[in-house]
Amino acid sequence: MADTVLFEFLHTEMVAELWAHDPDPDPGPGGQKMSLSVLEGMGFRVGQALGERLPRETLAFREELDVLKFLCKDLWVAVFQKQMDSLRTNHQGTYVLQDNSFPLLLPMASGLQYLEEAPKGCPRPRFLAFTCGLLRGALYTLGIESVVTASVAALPVCKFQVVIPKS
């Protein structure tokens, strides 16, 4: 419990700090892109570090789907103390991971003041960029390069789309 609350506070402060020190209060798309990149980069490094601490047998996955199942179950539990609710794939390198009660969105779902922060359909909003990076970093450590985006259609449901380009 304490770890979860600590992580949520830390995440909230990282996001707030990046937006608080923007030189221009209305930076436009360029400034927001920069802040999202910083958050996503932080998440990527954390995901890499988590991936490096995985047991050796975890690194022996043969199929992409097995790696994604591992992320949905074991990694998600390690970070958020719950499993991802669903995993879907088109079997062509695109995976959709859905969390119906994403912990970082729960506070927003319970307060009207946060609804502005979560525009419907907004890809990779600032409060999800870190988690997109975390997933991408863990996948990278497991030998899979990917593009990860997130979308919120209704709070607190979050969908992460993982696209793995074919080489």
Automatic annotation (TrEMBL):
One Pfam family of this chain: TRAPP
Entry superkingdom: Eukaryota
Main location: endoplasmic reticulum
Keywords: Endoplasmic reticulum, ER-Golgi transport, Golgi apparatus, Phosphoprotein, Transport
Subunit structure: Part of the multisubunit transport protein particle (TRAPP) complex. Heterodimer with TRAPPC3. The heterodimer TRAPPC3-TRAPPC6A interacts with TRAPPC2L. Interacts with TRAPPC2L.
GO cellular component: endoplasmic reticulum; Golgi apparatus
GO annotation terms (biological process): Golgi vesicle transport
Keyword Transport included in the entry's annotation: yes
Protein's name in the database: Trafficking protein particle complex subunit 6A
Organism name: Gorilla gorilla gorilla
Function: May play a role in vesicular transport during the biogenesis of melanosomes.
Family: Belongs to the TRAPP small subunits family. BET3 subfamily.
InterPro entries xref list: NO_sig/Golgi_transp_ligand-bd, TRAPP_component, TRAPPC6/Trs33
Keyword Endoplasmic reticulum assigned: yes
Compartments in which it is found: Endoplasmic reticulum; Golgi apparatus, cis-Golgi network
